[in-house]
Specification:
The structure is a homodimer. By secondary structure, chain A is α+β, with helices and mostly antiparallel strands. The first copy, chain A, folds into 2 domains: about 1-100, OB fold (Dihydrolipoamide Acetyltransferase, E2P), CATH 2.40.50.140; about 130-170 and about 205-450, BirA Bifunctional Protein, domain 2 (2-Layer Sandwich). Chain A is about 30% helix and about 25% strand. Chain A has 12 helices and 19 strands. Chain A has helices at about 5-10, 115-120, 130-150, 210-220, 255-275, 280-290, 295-300, 310-320, 335-345, 395-405, 415-420, 435-445, and strands spanning about 1-5, 20-30, 35-40, 50-55, 70-80, 90-100, 155, 165, 175-180, 185-190, 190, 205, 225-230, 245-250, 305-310, 350-355, 375-380, 385-390, 430-435. In chain A, strands 7-13-14-19-18-17-16-15 form an 8-stranded mixed β-sheet. In chain A, helix 3 packs across helix 6 (about 280-290) and helix 5 (about 255-275) packs across helix 7. The longest helix of chain A is centred in the first third of the chain and has 23 residues, at about 130-150. The radius of gyration of chain A is 27 Å and the shape is globular. Chain A starts with a strand and ends in a 20-residue tail after the last helix. The interface between A and B is large, with 100 and 100 residues.
Chain lengths: ~475, ~475
Amino acid sequence: MQKISVRSALSADQVGNQVKLEGWVRTRRDSKAGFSFIELNDGSCMGNIQVVADGNLANYESEVKKLSPGCSVRVLGEIVASQGKGQTTEVQASEVHVYGWADVETYPLQKKRHTMEKLREWAHLRTRTNTFGAVFRVRNCVSRSIHNFFQERGFLYVHTPIITASDCEGAGEMFKVTTLDLEAPPKADGKVDYTQDFFERPSFLTVSGQLEGEIFATSLGNVYTFGPTFRAENSNTSRHLAEFWMVEPEMAFVDLEGNMQVAEDFIKRIISDVLNDCGEDLQFFNDRIDDTVLSTLTSMADSEFLRVSYTDAIDILLKSGQKFDYKVEWGTDLQSEHERFLTEVHFKRPVILHDYPRSIKPFYMRCNEDGKTVRAMDVLAPKVGEIIGGSQREERLDVLEQRMQEQGLNPADYWWYLELRKYGTIPHSGFGLGLERILQFITGMGNIRDVIPFPRTPGSAEF
Amino acid sequence: MQKISVRSALSADQVGNQVKLEGWVRTRRDSKAGFSFIELNDGSCMGNIQVVADGNLANYESEVKKLSPGCSVRVLGEIVASQGKGQTTEVQASEVHVYGWADVETYPLQKKRHTMEKLREWAHLRTRTNTFGAVFRVRNCVSRSIHNFFQERGFLYVHTPIITASDCEGAGEMFKVTTLDLEAPPKADGKVDYTQDFFERPSFLTVSGQLEGEIFATSLGNVYTFGPTFRAENSNTSRHLAEFWMVEPEMAFVDLEGNMQVAEDFIKRIISDVLNDCGEDLQFFNDRIDDTVLSTLTSMADSEFLRVSYTDAIDILLKSGQKFDYKVEWGTDLQSEHERFLTEVHFKRPVILHDYPRSIKPFYMRCNEDGKTVRAMDVLAPKVGEIIGGSQREERLDVLEQRMQEQGLNPADYWWYLELRKYGTIPHSGFGLGLERILQFITGMGNIRDVIPFPRTPGSAEF
């Protein structure tokens, strides 16, 4: 008997087939006529298939009538057209085998609704709920879309290192990695002797694979990274994680205009793949989580992303007459309220801001001739603000060294990064997209902890 | 003028097209007739395209005749059929623009060959060599193949956590992750006060995503992880890294037989994708690195993998008359020499050994009725030995708890893992494949440090 998924079983073309289904009971309902309906889910889709278990099954009284939410079963039977409303097919069971019980007294996921906070404490069980099944199917779809987008364009997938000895990437606070005994670390001259540590020097978890990605772009052409990234920041917000996944393409012989175009194509591709492949899950988010999810995604897939310079954006904000909490002033970073005003109120579509003041941007961004701005870009989306940040990279050795000194960095720490400019330097560009940020945007989930399997935040590393 | 890759430019159907090419000079050769040949590479493939730069180019004397290995250029010109041997096409340049020079006095990658050890010190430049270009194109191909194999079968890609508070996974020595000041960690009762650390408890880098993967398999069905994994072992060998990438599928309602079949299909798929997509690179490895690479891969793609029990394998080894350094005895782990004898000498094909002694295997592997063995399996390949390790998982709560106690583990540390068995437990299985191990197998590269972009080993975390 062929094993099929619930997703397949729900399709009309299975009618008449003898099949095997395996999954978990969501509910059981007994008919007065002496049979039971079991709603069965196996994670292959949001929907359950209805199993009709007849009273003459050998274990009907002893087992079937004791099934409760969470029990695992194997069902053999025939797929038949359903008489019920809202479903095309159901299974007429010839056998219901119980793999595992779930005690109704202690099983946490009874029918009543639980808060997101409570479900986070049960991260080992929350994947059994409709919401988290949908979240992780969408997460898979977006991850697949990311790979497909870049692979189809001939980008190489590159694994940049997680452990790094550069404490100077400047993108945020770093976690230390060590094998020293913290109770009694070896000392030399009164200080911790890192020559006895695993890597014989202080080591950290990476905050970005960009600099290493540039090594590959400046030798093998277009590449992308997709992997975990870390921030040891004590930010207990709904938008921050200590461990998250980031995509960072890096492109050879590409300037800022090319970079912006790839970023726009990339986001649109992700959105159109999710709209095509996860319709049922998106409908659920739209119904239960945020009723603007579908309209926002559809309109974003169809909009041309505007290009607006930072300087023009500042003008627009200053002339808007809008009252903001944070002052608008050329030379300071835009706040979320400013970004949202631009995309949601003023332009009513996604906007790519470019050419930011050099004083607020990192050393590696390419300097413009005006002496005041760098070739940076941020993609702003309605509801969430910045979703992508990137730049053309500074490829001129002398300018790069000068920028490092400007920012108090020691060029010697970056000897290999500088050599990429010393030998056969090329114009190149790249950007970064946080996977969890775009997942929040797509699903409407309010807290970033609920779009990653096991969130790491201050004080929390369970599971 | 259309930008194309060197890979495209080498194809006969480009003849007659005006194109733009960008890349790095590999060599320059001047003809007495007053023009120059430039070998241009852009990383899109192993091969270079020959650029014919005529003496009447405006910058011929001032720049073209000074081009040396490593210089970066943009070439505009027409693709023409090549008169030369061993190439189909070449470019008749109408413009050669120099992006960046590479001083012949100091550029490390001059024509002479360098040792692998030396190239490791120049990991920021080694990607510009033929060998490492080929390695990283193959690495990309294998990574893509991994995703395609599982996605086409409906597996969900799951990101299990890198930072974990379980120091009890038992698979190896772990790195500590901390934000405490190692010079003066806070103390309570004379010991380090981890409640003041970022996660408020001791935290580590993961050695495996399996246990968390099981959470997803026992709720959403078949899943796989693909991400970085860590071992803080002081192993300075050609087969060990402190940071490496691992793939770990975990499958619901699948027993050991199903697990072995997926493992076999998986390896064959990777090999056939590499044979199809990376022919030129594999030919290079066969010519320059290991002349058995192509024959081994081809034969492996065609062989049925044998299933042999550990007990039968011990019998075969004992009766072989072969002299081994390590004693063969039921109840001890097989050594590499034993594994290689079985695959290379005795069976002459890949072998999957199964049902290993329970005393040498971890607590989570399913116990057989014989009381002596567990449902473990190892896939052994010629030349490298074990390439995949996996098992059916113990799904019986009482047996699992007993096994934990047998191995001196505290069940309370695994409360959530046990609850997967308490509520709706199911038969399930999975395995792990180290990306770098299979890359060594495919490329013939002798040292694992040379199949990962930036190797992390004891004393080494540069770049």
